[in-house]
Amino acid sequence: MSSLQKSILKSRLPPTGLSYPNRLVSQIDLCVDYYNKIENVFRMTSRKSRDYTPTTWDLYFKEKHSVVVSETDTFCAYTAGEEGNPILCLLHGGGFSALTWSLFAQEVTGMVHCEVVAIDLRGHGETVTSNDDDLSADTLARDVGKVVEHLFRDRPEPVLLMGHSMGGAVAVHIAHMDLIANLVGVVVIDVVEGTAMEALTSMQSFLRGRPSTFNSLEHAIEWSVRSGQIRNCESAKVSVPGQLKSIKTGEVGVTMISHEAGSSNSIACTEILEEESEVDGDKEKAAEQPEMPPPGEEEKNGFTWRIDLRKTEQHWPSWFQGLSQTFLELPVDKMLLLAGIDRLDKALTVGQMQGKFQMQVLSHCGHTVHEDSPDKVASIISNFLVRHKLAEPCENFERSLPAC
After folding, report:
1. What percent of the chain lies above the pLDDT cut of 90?
2. DSSP codes joined into one string, 211-226
3. Higher model confidence: residue 218 or residue 43?
4. pLDDT higher than threshold 70 for residue 46
5. Which of 97, 102, 136, 165 does the annotation list as catalytic?
6. Which CA distances in Å does 193 have to 169, 206, 232, 319?
7. Mean per-residue pLDDT for 192-221?
8. Which end of the chain is more exposed for a tag (fewer CB within 10 A), N or C?
9. pTM score > 0.70 for this model?
10. Would you call 136 a catalytic residue per the annotation?
């Protein structure tokens, strides 16, 4: 008990000039001892460290595919759910990987009958290409078109594109370029042209402010959670390893975990023949940079970011310029915008008032809405699919009305 607390308790006692029974004094002492014990238990509990041990992808996805589109380009994709159902194609944001959708994939496949495919985009995760720095919107869009064409060739099921941040912009470009057959709808998460274009001016500062290296995957996961980059610790444990690579070997963190765990899941490796080769309230306090090992040690065992986004700055405007108008003019009638904050630019505000798309705002979420609240996002998407008669609900499915 602090001296301040003791003084407050004493101030509530009768004046010191008075004498009081020994029984009352002993009761006061017991209360003070009991308070001290409760306080010690609280301190021990609050200081108990979290478990930041990375987890493997096969806890959330059914299968991992290596899709070879050319001699130099191989894309990694994860699938979950059952065939014969509508397909959700999930595209991650810049710097993330397909594993950012892990918890969401598990949740949504338990709510409605659907099949999920999450793709590591060019330069991210375990995807390998001849030019990882070419992140132009057109290149990324055509990459996804090739992968989806291969995985679901001759499949009649409807496809719903869903993308976060950069991935949301790519989803809009894919739909606009008509690169996926049977496309019925587009869902974008936390990407608005006006807000995104403003944010690009400070993007370099943000990237420079991140730790450039970590001495272990655990330290990287801890930093992501404590800094608020990902507010869901379980999601960070499976997502973050896909964002990092070994400084010594260049191997992606998720690959290293799979090797150590001895994952037995099958990896489908096939090839596509191409005629031409195309290439806030709950937020924890920001953490300090993890303590690094002695100089030289991090070069042996440390980790750095899978992709250096600072080198791709020339492509950033291509993701967002004209995005709002393009989104409103898409040749699909099932569109949904999810955001962690209610902030639309002029074009989208007018479009929403005209009923051209549905908007849903989730509170107490950061930029990675689908990682921070995977159950809520899955519920919204499930209801969206059921309401538009694109998917059948599973048992115990809870219907909800759309709301802003």
Report:
1. 56
2. -SEESSHHHHHHHHHH
3. 218
4. no
5. 165
6. 9, 19, 26, 9
7. 88
8. C
9. yes
10. no
Let me know: does 318 contact 288? Beta carbons within 8 Å.
no
Q: What is the DSSP string of 151-183?
A: HTTT--S-EEEEEETHHHHHHHHHHHHT-STTE
Of residues 176, 367, 370, 373, which has the active-site annotation? 367
Per DSSP, the three-state class of 123 is: coil
Active site residue 315: no
Q: For residue 233, what are its two tokens?
A: 């610790």
pLDDT of residue 9: 54
Q: What is the rounded distance in angstroms from the CA atom of residue 127 to the CA atom of residue 116?
A: 18
CA distance 170 to 244: 22
> Do the Cβ atoms of 138 and 170 come closer than 8 Å?
no
Q: Report, in this order, helix, strand and coil percent for the chain, each rounded to 5.
A: 40, 15, 40
Amino acid at residue number 268: A
What's the average model confidence in pLDDT over 169-197? 92
Residue 382 CA to residue 378 CA, distance in Å, equals: 6
CB atoms under 10 Å from CB of 287, counted, come to: 16
Pick the catalytic residue from 190, 239, 370, 379. 190
* CA–CA dist 374, 380 (Å, integer): 10
Q: Tokens standing for 143?
A: 């990459």
Active site annotation includes 263: no
Q: What is the DSSP letter of 270?
A: E
Q: Which tokens sit at 242?
A: 């896909």
Residues 160, 382 contacting (CB under 8 angstroms): no
Which residues does 31 contact at the CB level (< 8 Å), separation at least 6? Answer: none
3-state class (DSSP) for residue 1: coil
> Residue 295 has which token pair?
């100089």
